[in-house]
Amino acid sequence: MKTWAGVVYVAFVVDTFSRRIVGWSAATVKETVFVLDALEMALWQRDREQHPVRPGELIHHSDAGSQYTSFRLADHLDAAGIAASIGSVGDAYDNALMESTIGLFKTELIKPRRPWKTLSDVELATTEYVDWYNHRRLHGEIGHVPPVEYENNHYLATTKSQVTPNV
């Protein structure tokens, strides 16, 4: 997106199961480090909530942008036990969930509040948006509840089923 100070790029890491934005980053350059920051936030978030990433259970799906096809990101994903899946060039359907999330971000936050002045303004607004998106925005794909509520319900049900044996 354009700001008075230049172009700002935003990367998200979205959990497909819950539609929750678990990591994000904003930067003035489209380089691997800004994607790694979003991934690190997602991994930190899951560890913080005591739902760490288990090697071999996750797939990081992205488009074919150079920041996502770098050896540095591939090495980082491999070290975390996350499989990489890159969509075909020019095919938005390969990455439909992310395209939808970014479309909502632009429609619900970026376009209504422009013009944007600086990277810091975008970062602050994105922090607020992600909190709203995860804790208050209703998502039809997951039963018209916010992603955090959906996850909490899932973990509660999983915990109960592990404690209560079937008879």
TrEMBL record:
PROSITE patterns: INTEGRASE. It comes from Streptomyces viridosporus T7A. Pfam families: rve, rve_2. It comes from the Bacteria. InterPro entries: Integrase_cat-core (IPR001584), RNaseH-like_sf (IPR012337), RNaseH_sf (IPR036397), Transpos_IS3 (IPR048020), Transposase_IS3/IS150/IS904 (IPR050900). Residues 1-154 form the Integrase catalytic domain. PANTHER family: TRANSPOSASE INSF FOR INSERTION SEQUENCE IS3B-RELATED (PTHR46889), TRANSPOSASE INSO FOR INSERTION SEQUENCE ELEMENT IS911B-RELATED (PTHR46889:SF4). This is IS3 family transposase.
